[in-house]
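Most newcomers find our protein records easier to grasp once they have seen one. Each record describes a single protein and holds just a pair of labelled lines. A learned vocabulary of local backbone shapes supplies the integers on the structure line. Nothing more is needed to start thinking about how sequence determines fold. The record below serves as our worked example for the rest of this section.
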Amino acid sequence: MWRINEMGRKDSIAFRKNILAFVLMALFFGTIIIMYYRMLEGETKERIVRECEANAEASSGMIDKYLSGGIDCINITEGSLNSMIREKRPTEDILDYLVSQSKAVESVLPEATTGIYGYINGEYLDGDGWVPGEDYDPVMRPWYIKARANMGQIVVVDPYLDAQTGQIITTFAKQMCDAKSVVALDLSLKELQKITEDITGENEIIMVLDRDYHVIAHSNRSEINIDYGSGGDALGTAIVDAYRISDDDSFRALYNNTEYIVYSKKLDNNWICLCATDTTQAYGALRKPLILTVIVSVLVCLFMTAIFVYSDRRERQAEELEEKTQIAVAANNAKTAFLANMSHEIRTPINAILGMNEMVLRECRDEDILRYSGNIKKAGTTLLGIVNDVLDFSRIESGKLDIIPTDYELSSVIGDIVNMIRTRADEKGLELRLDIDGDIPNGLFGDEIRIKQVITNLLTNAVKYTDEGSVTFGMRFSDDPGDADSIILEVFVKDTGTGIRPEDMDKLLAKFERLEEKKNRSIEGTGLGLSIAENLLELMGSKLLIDSEYGRGSVFSFFISQKVTDRTRLGDHEAGAVAGPFEDRNEAETFIAPFAEILAVDDNPINLGVFRSLVKRTQVITDTALSGAEAVKKSAAKKYDIIFLDHMMPEMDGIETLEEIRGNKSNPNAVTPVICLTANAVSGAREFYISAGFNDYITKPVDPVRLEEMMVSYLPEEKVTRRLGTKRGSVNEDDLPAEFAPLNGTAVDAAAGIKNSGGALEYMSVLKTFDDASPDRVRELNKLFDAEDYETYTIKMHALKSSLRLIGAAMLGDRAQDIESAGKNMDHDYIKQAHGRFMEEYESLIRLLQPVLSGKDVRDGINEDRPPAEPEMITASYDKMREAAEEMDCDRLADILSELDRYTIGPEHKERIERLRSAVRAYEYGNVLSILDMD
């Protein structure tokens, strides 16, 4: 029943949708038709206007030419008569001249004029011999009056009915030189009528009007001499009314529901020539195609509506299939989300298990327990690899796995891969062979992490499915024909394993698919390795190639383009050992630079203390700043050779601080090399910080070797004195001072902390600073968490993460990293879930440090033979400290305290000096002065 009602509802919706579609199409086509008709109408009107203009121009031109003949005759006659008047010739001579001139004019303008006449020397003289009646007074005639009024200018008298000829004529007149005489010429307008009639086209009306809108000539003779300016119901009146209010030469006039398009042209004597066209026929010709277009449009709308109805039926038929597809997609997405969430949840306890097991391996000496622990490590590592595969797979399916290219050394990639795979190969008794071209450029640009992952997956797979023989890891290269700065890197993995059956090749790259499941049941793995490798290669523009012979082995290979950043040869390979660029990084050249000055900026005092310790032996003068604002202030006051700038700081972070320094051209450090200090050692970090304006970056905890290498590369060469270094060995637990024994086997790796801090003395100082700051840090984190100020909380967690890793608490530092990442990703639910447990572990860590911090001073254990400090020397040291504290010179304070470490301090001063040491570590200059002022 529900299904029937649902179908009825959908049919109703479909019907309304089709009706709406028809209406919209009709509106669309109607709009198009109207716009098209308006366009044609406009074009037709423009054509009519052009025709009217042409006819008006032609008429006015011919009329002006006709009238100019009479004007020329007047001018010629007037010149001769003026001479005769000046000579005072008798009236008989003047009349004879008028008679002869009239005959000449009549021959030039036949039937257009009755000759020349005038009022000369007080007498009316007519060249045609016409004698006026007694009541005819020439000085009262319009031609005489207008000529006298215009003093020497030719005037044109408005048309009138001539008493002698009975024709409509106009008169040209001009005053003579004596200012009393006037000569005149009558010109018949019959010729104007002929011009008008001859040039008039179909559906056209041409009319010539005088200045008072009387009809002088008209294409319809019956309209001659009608006054269009006096009103009335006539076409001419309607045209004149429209002309009067129009500002353009062309305009529209309506008469009896008929539209006329009119073009006006003024003649030389200010008469008006109007050419009007009836648009009825022109516009009527447009209506037929309009009607036909409307009919066609309706048919098209009906046809398209029929298509919509048919498509709607097809769409409803496909709905069920679409619903099933959506259900399948939702199930797949749920599976991917589940795998991703489970992978994250499982990795956390696995990391804890492996971390604690590592402590057992380092601490325990019982062979049985070590064997058990070794098995735990092997199984845990395998499990972690499986979880990572599932996580990568889920990221690939959800489209959240990105390729991030960076600069890398191929030798380092090969070394890491070989060291990782060789152990597995040795465990199975397999020979790991290297077939790598030593001429491959060592410096490349690409996603080294994903390339390493693909190769590792291929090699791991080869070792898994090879029971005896060898696994060969090879590399070749060739120039990239499409890019002169790139090479085509060929990577292949060859094994002597079981090979692949031809019928199983299609299943090889399937997800969660294991070939010959029964035979390979004992082999660990998810069956995702090759699928992930194939997907990663596809993201990098490559593909996986497979060549296998069942029973003899397989070859997996791929070709990938990589940019070349360093053409140095990779090196030779002998007996499976990578030579050439691989070097013992524990042995390096050291240096001193006592005249060099650097600035270290970090909001964490512990980090600044460690940094100073790491660079202390280089004798570089080191200033510090606890904020971006302080860094800007110090950089404006002194020129430094290098600035080390922390990225994550509250209020003004490292990038904002860098922009402030670089943006001020008057700052002496506007072009000083600036190195970013960051705990985010992720792929692509270098490109990010370089693009932000940094010259380079170094990760925290700071590697002393890397730090010295970077300082040498950026310090001015003239300030550096190089000296051959000695081999740097890692700190061993057996070599630790006894004071750090309570940390053995705990979550704090004291050996790593000593290495990070630059020495045992410095490490003890770091631990004390860490402990001093912990109560305030615990209160601050809890307060920010309760206030849900997650932005500031994330910044504070970032600083704590660096401190934890610095003292050797790597596992808790990783937890802080996870919480920091959640804060950056706005994952507040994760923070709420993880905060309580993290704070418990943090407070446990603080308690763990107490036996070390409350025990014998490490300085006492390291050097029992120090001479006692004399009272005068301590008093002098206090004075120096007071001066340094007043100047807020932390470096001098630290140097004074370091000098005191060379002596044994008596109990009467030991507590005060320790309090001074804590205040200096916290940069509390006022507290330093208060302690010094105590009795």
